[in-house]
Amino acid sequence: MKMSWFLLLIKVGVLVGCAGPFKYHDPNIPHHGKDGFLNNYDNSPKASVLKWYWERWTTSFPPDEPDGAPVVAVDLNALKNPEPLQITWLGHSAMLVQMDGINILTDPSLSERVSPISFMGPKRFGKLPLEIQQLPKIDVVVISHSHYDHLDLPSLKKINELNKGQTRFLVPLGNKELLAGEEIINVEEYDWWSGEKIGPIQFTFAPAQHWTTRTTFDVNRTLWGGWMIKGLTKQVYFVGDTGYSRDFQDIRQRLGAVDVALIPIGAYAPRWFMQKQHIDTSEAVHIHQDLGARFSLPIHWGTFKLSDEPMAEPPVKLKESLQNANLPLTVFPVLSRGETFSFEKATKQGK
Question: Which domain holds residue 280?
């Protein structure tokens, strides 16, 4: 297990290309830097990933664990006959959002591993709650950024094929060519605060505090962020991956409060390494408040071993963080993988 991580780093290191001039550089757009995209609020150097791996190697490399998030069978009938707004967690950051007659997938990493190598790297805990072919027709896929646990080309290719090229793929700047390499051509890419209307739903790409890479020579050459999904009467915000920043106050100010926020709660340890790129549960609660969310659903935990906290710890810490913020647990319910959240039912139960 230890050696596999070092081999993976070596493999990623050789998947390189000539970076060349940054084609999106624009001195009039602050986050379009000379050598890559920038965050709005914190562009200080990230902590060393090699130091983190060295610490894991020499001291307390976390063991394999038998427990991730619980998995339940998806109610396929509910997916075929959805509530006005319902959201099903498929694992990690993959959510099936069904609203106003539109089926939307967020960051559908549905492969066995999230890695540039099919037989190495982080492996899924437990089975998928359903097979990809059991999904309803997917109208739109939104991608938050290019890291392998969020932009999984094999999954995107399967979804595209199953839907006969009719699915729309909305991606951050710099990723359209990557999908085209898999013959996925129904793709549009977006900068922060841009988007489009598909059917009755407005999709708007918004900032986050993060970074991107798929090789050692493309750091921050593609953009990162989250997606506001505004329907006829409800708004859902998919955060993607992020460290904590003022971006979420900006998002609420520009796009309004949200009905449901999809917020990561895992991959936060060790904090000295993860803090600039992944929030912990107390920061997840802050984002819930910053967005003015009526409900939030936790994502990005219990599916792939990406960090040092125990796989089952994030919901425990989330409960503590909600209690510390004097918020009821019902505003941030923890789903099993495969479980469906109904906004209508949750609203009635909250009365």
Answer: 2-350
Q: Is the peptide bond before 270 cis (omega within 30 degrees of 0)?
A: yes
Q: Which of 108, 294, 139 is nearest to 201 (CA)?
A: 139
Q: Which residue has the tokens 């230890």?
A: 2
* Of residues 96, 79, 85, 100, the one with CA closest to residue 197: 100
pLDDT tens digits for 281-330? Answer: 999 999 999 999 999 999 999 999 999 999 999 999 999 999 999 999 99
Number of domains in the chain: 1
Residue with tokens 């619980």: 70
- What letter would DSSP give residue 134? G
**In angstroms, rounded to a whole number, what is the distance separating the alpha carbons of residues 211 and 350?**
37
Cβ–Cβ < 8 Å for 145, 109: no
Query: From CA 106, how far away is CA 259, in angstroms rounded?
Result: 17
pLDDT of residue 56: 82
Q: Say how far apart CA 97 and CA 86 lie, in whole Å.
A: 6
- As a whole number, mean pLDDT of residues 114-130 equals 89
Select from 123, 126, 130 the least CA-distant residue to 339.
130
Report field, pTM of the whole predicted structure over 0.90: yes
Which helix (H) or strand (E) segment holds residue 255: the answer is helix 247-255
Per DSSP, the three-state class of 187 is: strand
The phi, psi pair for 79, rounded to 5°, reads: -70, -35
CATH of the domain at 206: 3.60.15.10
pLDDT of residue 12: 45
- Report the phi/psi class of residue 225: left, alpha or beta, with left for phi > 0 and alpha for psi in -120 to 50: left
How far apart (Å, rounded) are the C-alpha atoms in residues 58 and 306?
18
Cα gap 229→135, rounded to integer Å: 20
Coil, strand or helix: which one is 1? coil
Specify the amino acid at residue 140: V
**Rounded Cα gap, residues 91 and 298, in angstroms:** 10
Residue-level length of the chain: 351
